[in-house]
Structure prediction request, 501 residues.
Amino acid sequence: MFKYLKEYRFYIILFLFILIPIISIDTTARAPRDYRFYDKVIVSITTPIQASITWTLESLVHLFQNYIYLWNTRQDNIAIMEENRKLLNTIVNLRETQEENLRLRKLLGFSEEFSLKAVVARVISKDASTEFRTIRINRGESSGIRKDMAVINNEGVVGRILRVTSNTADVVTILDLLSAVDSIVKRSRARGIVEGMTDEACQLKFALRTDDIQPDDLLVSSGLGGIFPKGIPVGKVSEVKKKEYGITQTVEVRPSVDFSKLEEVLVITDPQHSPMHVTTKVKLPTGTTASSAPGPSASPAPETAPKPERSRQ
Amino acid sequence: MTYLIIRALNAPILILLVSIGAAIQTSLFANWPFLYLQPDVILLATIWCALKRSFTEGGVLVLILGNVAEVHSGAPRGVFLATYMAVYLMIRGMGKLVLIDQLSSFVGLTLFTSIFWKLSVLFVLSTLGIGENIWRHTLALMLPWAVMEGVVGTWVFKWFEKFDWVTFKDPRARASAEEALQLDEEGL
Prediction:
């Protein structure tokens, strides 16, 4: 027995090397998945590195945008600049805080508009391969994030949670080929599924050839599928191709979200669809929770806001 | 004894280094336009394992590194394991026919392997029925990406070579260490 094992060792190992990857292929590609314990070890090692690199890059970009551009002015006004150097540093910090504040306010306003309970998270890394377009955020199970939760920002739908660890979560963006968002054209109510295609565009699939879809039409989430609340912008129709025959038409969609500048996102932890629920709780990145109660300044529910009778999908 | 321990640590440290490399790759090249220039550290490590490790050790390392890649990607489970293993076996097979022992031939091999890997990913995704949206994008970016991989490979392979030397994995370093040990034993 051992003699044969030794004799055919190479072929046995070769067979195993071919077999293991093949049996590990998951044919239910779009299904949510879990991290295995050894995956979590890898994530816990690499996440701090990713977070620190992202922070360093962001700081450098902010420094470049807010400080280095002013060097020419300093040459002209060297005396004044010398006096104001300390102030400039403060301004740089304030500007950064102000920009962050503005972005967070937009996110807060958006979640208020749709009456959602959400957690704000920061993007810390993107996919290792250019074929797939997932992102990793710095919030996980400890912040109440679970698989298949919707991820949005103030511009529209970002994606859904694919898997989570205690402090991070992976988000399948709508640009990813594994993503599918049930959407409707806001103007004509034509329905289809938005699937990822390239780094900048998606495709509206299963839209009937007879449906009225025009370039620049806005697509919003339909609320079907139970992940995304109804009425959140998904993208704009950029191109429509209709053949003379066939059942469907080819529709290219530009996402509402600018993925090249995506820094913060909002993970919907509890989509309260009822317009009666206007209390919004958003966990800010620092861990604090901001609440807003209904008041005179609260914006009225938009036309696309979900109705109570169709709140649960 | 120290020499043996350092040598035994080669594989786990290599896995750790490649994981850190993957983390740097995914965060440093996360923003446009660098996204398109993102090298694949794990593919480079796979090539290195195919050329510089025994069949069993290299294969096991490739399986582990494939899993590291899947942790950092939204790819369906098993896709990277299968494609990196295909690359590994292809290079092992090629190694029987072609002499690959210089850095320049490594770079040439990296260019070829990068293209082969992208095509394998496309093939597996098409087999799973999800490749139809991506093939244009993949083919358009294939060559620039392969060139980037080749350029980054020149440095990464040098670092791997140094790492193997320091951990006595390199046959010359091993021979020199053993010779030194023997001379030591003989009191010379």
In short: The two ends of chain A are 60 Å apart (CA to CA). Chain A touches chain B through 55 residues (CB under 8 Å). Chain A has a mean pLDDT of 78. The CA atoms of residues 93 and 261 of chain A lie 20 Å apart.
